[in-house]
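Revision sheet: structure tokens.
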Amino acid sequence: MHCLEVLSVNGTTRSEEIREAVARHLAGENDVFHDLYCLPDDYGADMIRFCLAASDAEARALLLDVLWNRREPAAIPLLERMIEDENEDVWQAALDGLVTYGSIRSAEIIEEYTARLKREKPGSGKIDWMIEAFEQLRERLANDG
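Predicted:
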């Protein structure tokens, strides 16, 4: 993804820029993902904080997608937390991010959460998603040697 322009509003804080972009997304504006993706690298921590504080599931899902697409290293603990979200768009965004990172830690997170789901919510529809993601990730890790 190429970033020719960076979303920047003179005189606003990072949190305000993120909040404004999320509000535009929630209002139906297109290309907000790209605007957030193209923010400077040091905005990642602010996006993580905003995601943790967001009560709106659509906002959380958007920010998760942006963060894992940016390959924010600090996002893995957030993805681990958000995989437990009750909203399907949010936990699927977190799961997509973990699979995309493709790390051993990602596989451990998915495996541990799947085991807990099987114990605590054996009928959860999330279990099949988690198993499939874990298998994909395990196969990729095995092939990467």
